[in-house]
Amino acid sequence: MVDATFAAPDLTTFARLDELGLVVVGQRLEPDRAVLACRVVEPDGWCRRCGCEGVPRDTVVRRLAHVPLGWRPTVLLVTVRRYRCAGCAHVWRQDTTRAAEPRSKLSRRAVRWALEALVLQHLTVARVAEALAVSWNTANAAVLAEVRRVLVDDPTRLAGVRVVGVDAHAVRHEALLFRMEVRDLHRFAVAAAG
User: Fold this and answer.
1) Number of neighbouring beta carbons within 10 Å of residue 192
2) Which residues of the chain have pLDDT under 50?
3) What is the strand order of the sheet 176-184 is part of?
4) From the CB of residue 170, how many other CB atoms can be counted at a distance below 10 Å?
5) Residue-wise pLDDT tens digits, 59-113
6) Which 3 state secondary structure label does DSSP give 148?
7) Is the pTM of this model over 0.70?
8) What is the DSSP letter of 18?
9) CB atoms < 10 A from the CB of 12, how many?
């Protein structure tokens, strides 16, 4: 018989926010979305200009779309502490780059989920945007940036490829679309699509 060992329930781990350097401090379920109140785990109290220790000044809330939980859009309300340097009076916010790109409206996990939904589940950008409760332009821009980062800007993406197959076929979602794919036939992966 398999040893069934359980850990204590932990919403931070369940929502995979520990990977983003966040911890859940509250939750609210609304009819159309789940809202998770979070805070940044790592303190960031040292001035980047002069190296002096900063004094907590106040907090701001950063709103991020996250991976849907049960197809219910999930919103992260991340409380970010602001500091003021005692030496040079410089003001800065806690570093949230593990959670999301600067000025992004989607968490890093949400961007990865959106890319996987498009490529593996064949969802449309409109459906991904609806699941994340963001605009079509926001979802599309985030996915294109992730594709560029993961595929296009990776110089090793075609390393070891010996045979390339090109296939043109029609895909029907909401309209008739024609798509060309370059596939790695050894790893059964799409190397490029257009």
Assistant:
1) 16
2) none
3) 164-172, 176-184, 189-193
4) 8
5) 999 999 999 988 799 999 999 999 999 889 999 999 999 999 999 999 999 999 9
6) helix
7) yes
8) G
9) 17
